[in-house]
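Chain A, query sequence.
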Amino acid sequence: MAATHVKRAFKFRFYPTDAQAAELSRTFGCVRKVYNMALRARTEAWTLRRERVNYNATSAMLTAWKKTEELAYLSEVSSVPLQQSLRHLQGAFSNFWQKRAKYPTFKSRKKSRRSAEYTTSAFRYQGGRLTLAKMAEPLDIVWSRPLPEGAAPSTVTVSQDASGRWFVSLLCEDRPSMPAPVNAAVGVDAGITSLVTLSTGEKVANPKFERADRERLARAQRELARKAKGSRNRDKARVKVARLHARIADRRRDFLHKLTTRLVRENQTVVIEDLTARNVLGNHSLARAISDASWTELRSMLEYKAQWYGRELITVDRWFPSSKLCSACGTIRNAMPLNVRAWECACGAVHDRDVNAARNILAAGLAVAACGDGVRPQRSTPGGQSSVKQEEVPPPRPRAAAQPRG
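Chain A, predicted structure.
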């Protein structure tokens, strides 16, 4: 399969000067303010007057807001991130109309992601130096990996996480290096003790990053609970907790990236089970361990990497009895409690529960690839494009929502 061009985001950490940090913080606040005001205007227009308000109307509202004395400060930051926030709101409504998401909600000063998106008219990238609008100096970026040769970023997103770290994400067009085609195929069974078990018999242990830092995190959370609300010591304790969460998430993401890249590069076909984590999380005794395993992120990485590298990812129906089915004779057992890790079939075959499941998943996936039966269609990614023409149906009247916070 020939290499194709794809849009890839390259994320780097950077260290802003005091002036740059202040400018970006103002921009984040203005982006949140504009988003909330536009959401309130669209909601009230439909609730009170049955009037539909689109992106163009909210853009005109933004121009009018800037001319008022109360909101004149919106003109002090770059206008591009403000316009982009209105486009994001339009996208949120589109997802709601197409029943891909719930009704948009107001952004919170403390809980919502602090970010701003710049398009090509609001930044300059030249010679490995990135300068944003309203800034005199380029950002001090740690270039941990090179951008694609001749890359020209189409958008730049600046963000700050809860632990105070600053990141910049550059969206570039790239042509991933295509690995050589191979004849190998592998079935993948996701679990908790072993993060994944492969049909080859290999088991990849679950690092359990959250459990490793659980005691340290609990101690930090207790310290946070004891601090007086609104005090500087509470802010310091909150950052300490956020850094521990970031450490856990970073290590987990790094491990999953390495694992999924290896699976996709070494196999032409990867077969997985259609596990829906939110359904399994109803089991409260396993919810924490399942969240730590991050099955959803594992599947998401396999999906887009298979597309990048020209591999085939097959998803087997979640109700397929992979654990109860004998991979040797095809007999299905009536029950298979979770505490049964090995079992013997009437045909004499002795199975490791997870390895047997992975082999059955592979066999089912290959059968589906041959006849096209028994597998559910690939799920759509959040915010993805739909082949169905969008109808702008009016939203139902939302329940009383909190007033937007600036």
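The chain is about 40% helix and 15% strand. The chain has two domains: 7-174, 185-206+244-371.
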